[in-house]
């Protein structure tokens, strides 16, 4: 995957983690 995509995923994971949607997100475990 692109490095930019990985960075975006990491940022989105942090935001979702704060909102509590992290557990419901199928991408909670990023596959590089």
Hey, roughly how much beta strand do the residues contain?
A: under 5%
Structural class: mainly alpha
Apparent shape? flat
Q: Distance N terminus to C terminus?
A: 6 Å
Number of strands: 0
Question: How much is the radius of gyration in Å?
Answer: 9 Å
Number of helices, where a helix is a run of at least 4 consecutive DSSP H or I residues: 1
Percent helix, as a range, is: 40-55%
Name the helix and strand elements from N-terminus to C-terminus, one letter apiece: H
Describe the main β-sheet briefly. none
Give the averaged pLDDT, no decimals.
68
Which regions are unreliable across 5 or more consecutive residues at pLDDT < 50? Answer: none
Q: How would you describe this structure to a colleague?
A:
The longest helix has 17 residues, at 3-19. This protein is 53% helix and 0% strand. It is an all-alpha fold. The chain has one helix spanning 3-19. The relative contact order is 0.21.
Keywords, separated by commas or semicolons:
mainly alpha, about 0% strand
């Amino acid at each position: 995957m692109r490095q930019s995509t990985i960075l975006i995923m990491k940022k989105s994971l942090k935001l979702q983690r704060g909102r509590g949607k992290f557990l419901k997100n199928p991408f909670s475990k990023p596959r590089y």
